[in-house]
């Protein structure tokens, strides 16, 4: 079946067509993403009203392009899926209304998708990945360790008690005068930096619970930067490298505990897998750190390609396709939700027929 997906929860306007075959394998037929970085750059972050307007202006063209590139007219689409939350409410309304209208016009089912579920299931689109698996979701708004037991069954093992990791990257970049969005800028600057120059904190390290905390790290970066004013390029590079080293160390600590927890929960899983998803998963250094850790603990490591880590509609279309295999579609009066925890994204209709 072919699903048209729409994503407008933040500052990317995106449309995509994805195919899912009988065996559950996925294929991306088109994946169009229009980033609003230029619109928001002057403000150093996303301005909700600007985002909503930009989605309105771009979305119909993007949908047309996604259908065209997929060589699939609307009549040949089997379902339409859109992000219904969590995210900025103005953007969500734009995407949701468009998807409902298209579904209604084409007489096809509509699926309301949780954006985080899109991130969580992406690795099943790109790889042959059965349930259950362990997921580290690291994005602009979320930092969570999740046990993905099955479709619609997401158990949160840990979450951040303050800032999200992507947010910590963005705030660090802003403090250092680096461009928005901060993640890629910090990663680039860190390449020529000394990761040992600053001893930044590793919050919650060594604790048994699987939560994260990043606000202390951000404060430490602010203090280090304040002592060095005016900051030279090498100072910035060294702070970025030290920041990334602290993040990598923290993640390693939390994740290695989670791997152990997974083994306890599923001692019989032959090939235990850690998936990393969300925008921060695009970070090369963090990927390498996680990959090394997985190799050490006998886990398979999966990280989707960069373009599928940051926001996109292929992941929404794919989640729609996974839902479509189990239910008819969602009612057209479903409302957008600015807050929508992943563990509340359960599919009530899923029964014994769940495929691995
Ligand atoms: P959420 O998915 O939680 O709703 P979001 O959709 O805004 O939030 P994503 O688009 O998944 O988040 O990710 C964006 C975040 O990823 C930003 O904070 C950005 O700085 C970060 N990011 C992107 N590339 C990198 C990178 N190479 N290294 C570190 N962080 C990165
Ligand atoms: Mg974004
Ligand atoms: Fe996202």
Blueprint of the fold:
Layout (H helix, E strand, L loop, with lengths): L1 E6 L4 E9 L5 E10 L1 H4 L7 H22 L9 E7 L3 H18 L3 E5 H12 L6 E6 L4 E8 L2 E7 L5 H11 L6 H9 L24 H12 L6 H33 L7 E5 L6 H14 L2 E3 L3 H4 L4 H11 L32
Bound molecules: adenosine-5'-triphosphate, magnesium ion (MG) and fe (iii) ion (FE).
Structure description:
There is one protein chain. The chain folds into two domains: 2-123 and 307-325, ATPase, nucleotide binding domain (Nucleotidyltransferase, domain 5), CATH 3.30.420; 131-306, ATPase, nucleotide binding domain (Nucleotidyltransferase, domain 5, 2-Layer Sandwich). The chain is built from eleven helices and ten strands. The protein is globular. The protein has 356 residues and is an alpha/beta fold. β2 (12-20) and β3 (26-35) form a beta hairpin. α8 (233-265) runs parallel beside α9 (284-297). The two termini are 18 Å apart. Strands 3-2-1-4-5 form a five-stranded mixed β-sheet, sandwiched between helices. The chain has a five-stranded mixed β-sheet with strand order 8-7-6-9-10, with helices on both faces. Residues 349-356 have low confidence and may be disordered. It has helices spanning 37-40, 48-69, 89-106, 115-126, 165-175, 182-190, 215-226, 233-265, 284-297, 306-309, 314-324; strands spanning 2-7, 12-20, 26-35, 79-85, 110-114, 133-138, 143-150, 153-159, 273-277, 300-302. Residues 115, 119, 139, 278, 311 line the site of fe (iii) ion.
